[in-house]
Predict the structure.
Amino acid sequence: GNSVTQMEGPVTLSEEAFLTINCTYTATGYPSLFWYVQYPGEGLQLLLKATKADDKGSNKGFEATYRKETTSFHLEKGSVQVSDSAVYFCAHGGATNKLIFGTGTLLAVQP
Amino acid sequence: DGGITQSPKYLFRKEGQNVTLSCEQNLNHDAMYWYRQDPGQGLRLIYYSQIVNDFQKGDIAEGYSVSREKKESFPLTVTSAQKNPTAFYLCASSRTYPGLETQYFGPGTRLLVL
C-alpha cells in the first residue's frame, strides 16, 4: 500500500549542528514528495517539495532530494537554529490523489 | 492576504453535543480537506471536497459530517457519534484535487470534551 515512514523523534541537536531526518515511502507510480513543518500550536506550512526523480527541493537552508532508487526524501540542513525547533512531516501524493503523511519528527534545537 | 482561517481556536464539547468547526479560504482553491491530528499519529484524512457541492469520505469519516455549499467554506461537524473527538483539527485547501498540488493549512482548532 501507500505509506510514508520517517524517523522517530525527538531529535535533539545543539545550535549549528547538522540535521538529517530520514523519510522513505512506498507508492504506486512516482508521486510528488513534500516536507511540511509545524510550529507549536500552529497548522502545517509547506517547507519544500519535489515533483520528479532527482529533483532537489530547498527552502530556508533545508534541502531534500527525490531518490527514486531508494524511495527516499531525506531532509537535511547544514546548521540548525533554535528557531527550527518544530515537528517535521514528510508526505507524498500523486497516484492516490491524496497526501499520505508520515507520523512527524519532533526537532528540538538547544542553544 | 490570502489564506485559510479556522475558528474557533479552542472548542469545548459536552457529551452528546454536536459541534461545528469553521474553515474559510480566500485562495480561490477548488479542493478542501479536513484532517485530524493526534499525538504520535500524524495526520489522518476525515473528509475532502474536490468541488462545490461534492465531498467524499476520507480514512476516518465515522462520526463526522461536512458540507460544501460555497467554494470558500468547508465546515466540519463533529457529531455525538464520534466517541473520541478530542484532537487537533486541521483544514487545508489546494488549487485542484490531485496529489501533485501543494496543500495549504489553516491554524487549526483544538477540540476538547468536557
